[in-house]
């Protein structure tokens, strides 16, 4: 009686309309997420795909829930998958709450959108909707919606291989990710091509039907060509699995048996794929290399991360980059990838284990096994064209599942995996169960409560998604402006807009700090500017650097930006040098095996020593004496930091260079010269090294040696202002005033508005000679924002 009543309610026109809306937006996610490519954001793919995924999942869910409200009953397909989904979501939520990087885990950024809680939740919502709106009758349309856009995506990539570039990158992301996507679509295409006569004629009629037929025929050769270009063993192996499965299915089913030319082509393709798993493709078309940590390194990082955070819930979604920098093996410093930072491991499975822990991985495995079992059931229990269609669906899903064990993921692969999962479960479960809200006060109260919670969640998620997307557009404008030479004021304005729309993103605060610091440098060169204005920019820069650290203290770039800001303002702000050193030390704790950060710490100590040097010549003798000792200690610490960097990477040239500078400031010119000479032997055409060597000889009073080196620099780089500047000092001390004047005149031509150069030229022309040490000319920097 109750069941009949619920079934009658489902026939209501508004119920049917709401369910059709839910199906439509599920279909829209199938179509739009893979082809989403919008150039007005900071990154054309991931954030746009995520935004579309969120919007489609929200509207589809609202439409589906609306149908339940109109029915005044909760009618869903009977399955225990709901409980598994809830447990899986709870596990990710716990991992997110205790994450090392909150914003990244909640929303994702910089290519980590695919693993954020927002994406996981959206995918699970679509699975929930798809489970209840996908049926055996609607499945062909969903497969059609996957096939048609895929043919366009693969066609553009094939054209790009022949240097016919329409877009700067493919629609999927990394080259091998496109390869995985192509094998998935090939499995679906095979299922259509081998059953073209048995499938419903409506699937191949009209414009959409014609596009489906053409796409099915085009995808397979496009995929083979892309696989040939990439030559990645996993892709060939996936293709072999697909072909073998269709062979077995064909021989066991007379209705859909593969015969004649199709059989011959399939056998030839199978043989070729088997060969290319082990042998490189001849005449391989070059493609950019795709780098990732080895499986062993990934496993080691995973175990260290879990042991220091949580074995059950990991370090938080999207935090793999933090873990990699902290636990990177020191032996990698001997490779060319010593400073490369990876934001994912060798596989999606290991990335999940590291960032979300064993509990989440276990629940995910149960979910995958459940979908796999249901997939096998629908294939084994079907016949004819339906059998091949279900087989193609299962194989497409299986390709993605297997790829997660050996390769990473992204927004497209993640979304397609969950959409295919929804389709498999949707046609697998047919029995429904229902609860009428109007038959029980408890059920009605519970329904109202759940409805309010869902409504509030949707409102919050929708608002945050829209606000975040608007902020990214503003940030993209700031990046474009800075790289095209736009005004610093305009860049700051756009960054402020981005930050006002999304105050949780540390990237905006970090870049604002840099932009304000750069602006203060511009103003310092203008003597007519009120010093208070300059200090206001310095204060804004410092505040934003501090804010970036507060938002994401475990992101090493934030600690470095804060340290750099304090280092730059050391001449103007008392005690800034100490804060800079503390920030550099914090950075080292986040990446203890990277020599670059010990170098930065050494530079911080050098800046501190320089600041103390300016105090030593003051009138306060007590302060001057204490500054002498403090400066010696700072130089000793700088030398220790540089030596630590060299112990981690013995051929690290920048550390050698700054170690020489530390020795020079310490007064140990012989050691400084020896260091520079050892570097110059490996880099004889490095003008900066030769300049430094000439400068050291000048300090030693070896004018002839200094002249030789500096003249060599001028020959290497005639427009190198500092080389001519110090060469003029050599000539001046040798009594060659005409030579000194000539060099200063050339320096003035290169720097026409520099007052220091003009004054020195006038002094030389007046015949006034001095042996005072020259100060290097300031180098011009450019504003270039980075993520």
Supply the number of structural domains: 2
**Largest beta sheet: what is the strand line-up?**
1-2
Q: What's the count of strands? A: 2
Major β-sheet profile: 2 strands, antiparallel
Share in helix: over 70%
Distance between the termini: 61 Å
Instruction: Estimate the global geometry from the Cα principal axes.
Output: elongated
Strand content: under 5%
Q: Look at the structure and give the mean pLDDT.
A: 88
Low-confidence stretches: 779-783
**Count of alpha and pi helical runs:** 31
User: Which structural category fits the helices and strands?
Assistant: mainly alpha
Detailed description of the structure:
This protein is mostly helical and 787 residues long. The protein folds into 2 domains: 2-439, no CATH class; 668-787, Tetratricopeptide repeat domain (Serine Threonine Protein Phosphatase 5, Tetratricopeptide repeat), CATH 1.25.40.10. The protein has helices spanning 2-10, 13-35, 46-71, 81-97, 102-106, 117-133, 139-161, 175-193, 206-230, 233-251, 260-278, 295-308, 320-327, 348-380, 384-406, 411-428, 441-483, 488-501, 506-524, 531-551, 556-568, 576-590, 595-616, 621-648, 653-666, 669-682, 687-700, 703-716, 721-734, 737-750, 755-765; strands at 73-77, 432-436. The chain has a two-stranded antiparallel sheet with strand order 1-2. 48% of the residues are buried. Residues 779-783 have low confidence and may be disordered.
């Amino acid at each position: 009686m109750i069941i009949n009543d619920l079934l009658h309610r489902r026939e209501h026109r508004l119920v049917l309309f709401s369910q059709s809306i839910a199906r439509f937006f599920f279909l829209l996610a199938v179509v739009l997420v893979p082809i989403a490519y919008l150039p007005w954001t900071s990154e054309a793919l991931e954030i746009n795909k995520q935004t579309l995924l969120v919007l489609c999942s929200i509207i589809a869910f609202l439409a589906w829930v609306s149908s339940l409200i109109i029915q005044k009953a909760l009618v869903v397909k009977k399955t225990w998958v709901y409980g598994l989904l809830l447990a899986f979501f709870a596990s990710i939520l716990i991992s997110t709450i205790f994450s090392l990087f909150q914003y990244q885990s909640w929303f994702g950024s910089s290519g980590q959108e695919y693993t954020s809680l927002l994406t996981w939740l959206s995918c699970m919502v679509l699975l929930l909707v798809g489970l209840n709106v996908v049926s055996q009758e609607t499945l062909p349309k969903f497969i059609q919606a996957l096939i048609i856009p895929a043919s366009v995506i693969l066609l553009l990539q094939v054209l790009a291989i022949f240097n016919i570039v329409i877009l700067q990158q493919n629609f999927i992301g990394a080259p091998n990710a496109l390869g995985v996507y192509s094998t998935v679509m090939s499995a679906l295409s095979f299922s259509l091509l081998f059953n073209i006569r048995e499938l419903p004629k409506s699937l191949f009629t009209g414009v959409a039907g014609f596009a489906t037929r053409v796409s099915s025929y085009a995808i397979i050769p496009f995929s083979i060509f892309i696989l040939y270009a990439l030559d990645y063993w996993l892709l060939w192996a996936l293709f072999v699995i697909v072909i073998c499965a269709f062979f077995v299915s064909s021989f066991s089913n007379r209705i859909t048996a593969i015969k004649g030319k199709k059989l011959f082509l399939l056998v030839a393709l199978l043989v070729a794929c088997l060969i290319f798993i082990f042998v490189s493709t001849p005449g391989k078309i070059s493609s950019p290399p795709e780098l990732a940590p080895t499986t062993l390194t990934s496993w080691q990082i995973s175990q260290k991360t879990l042991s220091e955070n949580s074995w059950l819930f990991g370090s938080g979604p999207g935090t793999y980059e933090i873990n990699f920098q902290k636990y990177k093996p020191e032996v990698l410093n001997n490779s060319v990838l010593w400073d490369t930072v990876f934001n994912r491991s060798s596989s999606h499975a290991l990335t999940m284990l590291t960032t979300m822990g064993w509990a989440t991985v276990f629940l995910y495995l149960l979910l995958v096994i459940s979908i796999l079992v249901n997939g096998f059931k629908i294939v084994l229990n079907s016949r004819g064209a339906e059998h091949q269609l279900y087989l193609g669906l299962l194989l497409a899903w299986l390709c993605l599942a297997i790829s997660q064990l050996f390769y990473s993921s992204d927004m497209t692969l993640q979304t397609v995996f969950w959409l295919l999962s929804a389709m498999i479960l949707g046609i697998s479960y047919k029995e429904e169960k229902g609860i009428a809200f109007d038959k029980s006060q408890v059920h009605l109260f519970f329904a109202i409560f759940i409805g309010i919670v869902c409504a509030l969640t949707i409102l919050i998620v929708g608002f945050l998604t829209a606000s975040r997307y608007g902020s990214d557009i503003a940030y993209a404008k700031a990046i474009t402006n800075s790289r095209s030479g736009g005004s610093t004021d305009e860049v700051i304005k756009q960054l402020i807009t981005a930050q006002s729309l999304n105050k949780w993103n540390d990237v905006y605060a970090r870049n604002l700090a840099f932009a304000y610091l750069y602006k203060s440098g511009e103003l310092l060169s203008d003597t007519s500017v009120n010093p208070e204005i300059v200090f206001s920019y310095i204060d804004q820069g410092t505040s934003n650097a501090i804010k970036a650290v507060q938002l994401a203290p475990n992101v090493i770039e934030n600690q470095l930006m804060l340290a750099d800001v304090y280092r730059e303002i050391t001449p103007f702000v008392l005690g800034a040098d100490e804060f800079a050193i503390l920030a550099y030390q914090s950075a080292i704790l986040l990446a203890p095996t990277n020599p670059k950060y010990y170098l930065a710490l050494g530079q911080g100590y050098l800046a501190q020593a320089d600041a103390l040097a300016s105090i030593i010549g003051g009138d306060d003798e007590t302060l001057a004496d204490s500054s002498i000792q403090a400066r010696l200690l700072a130089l000793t610490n700088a030398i220790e930091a540089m030596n630590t960097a060299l112990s981690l990477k013995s051929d690290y040239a920048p550390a050698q260079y700054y170690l020489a500078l530390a020795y020079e400031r310490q007064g140990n010119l012989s050691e400084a010269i020896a260091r520079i000479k050892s570097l110059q032997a490996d880099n004889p055409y490095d003008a900066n090294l030769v300049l430094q060597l000439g400068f050291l000889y000048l300090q030693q009073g070896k004018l002839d040696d200094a002249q030789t080196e500096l003249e060599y620099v001028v020959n290497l780089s005639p427009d190198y202002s500092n080389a001519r500047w110090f060469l003029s000092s050599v000539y001046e001390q040798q009594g060659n005033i005409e030579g000194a004047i000539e060099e200063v005149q050339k320096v003035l031509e290169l720097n026409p508005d520099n007052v220091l150069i003009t004054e020195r030229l006038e002094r030389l022309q007046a015949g006034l000679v001095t042996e005072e040490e020259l100060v290097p000319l300031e180098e011009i920097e450019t504003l270039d924002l980075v993520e």
